[in-house]
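Quick entry between incubations.
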Amino acid sequence: KAGVTQTPRYLIKTRGQQVTLSCSPISGHRSVSWYQQTPGQGLQFLFEYFSETQRNKGNFPGRFSGRQFSNSRSEMNVSTLELGDSALYLCASSLDPVYPQHFGDGTRLSIL
Amino acid sequence: GESVGLHLPTLSVQEGDNSIINCAYSNSASDYFIWYKQESGKGPQFIIDIRSNMDKRQGQRVTVLLNKTVKHLSLQIAATQPGDSAVYFCAVLNTGNQFYFGTGTSLTVIP
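Done. Structure below.
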């Protein structure tokens, strides 16, 4: 069974730009969650989607948004990038949030 | 809300010894807990989970202990091997179905 796939693996952007990250969950998993990982803050929850609906949202500004498609694939968008958005963005999928989440290897976003 | 903390940011053990990594959580209503292992350049990898109706669960070389009275979770790794060197996180599911993660313990296994 293929794991969670995140693309691209690495991205370099400049301040003010926007970026879209993609996540393909494990087949059959309908819940997709996104996290931001930084050395100082650890893993911070961004949002969770289930059957194309956002069910939970973390404490991030509105520049961070996401969506989920009917095939459970998910995208995350960050607009008006800031230097502080440099981080590893991780996607995790599960059958439902109360089941184990399985992570992809992340997208490393660097803002210049 | 929920706050999750690990007791030690780093831990060094001799190969073959047992390792114990600890985690404390704040919300007594939390009822699902997961331990993850993260190697450099990779995403967190599921190790073992436990629900609040249990106080111990064993896997291959790993045991998770849950003490709901003091809101404490631990991961024990038996006969630690060099391949166990990684950062270990605990994740706690709160009543809003959102996982909160500890800051991680970096385990170094000395050959």
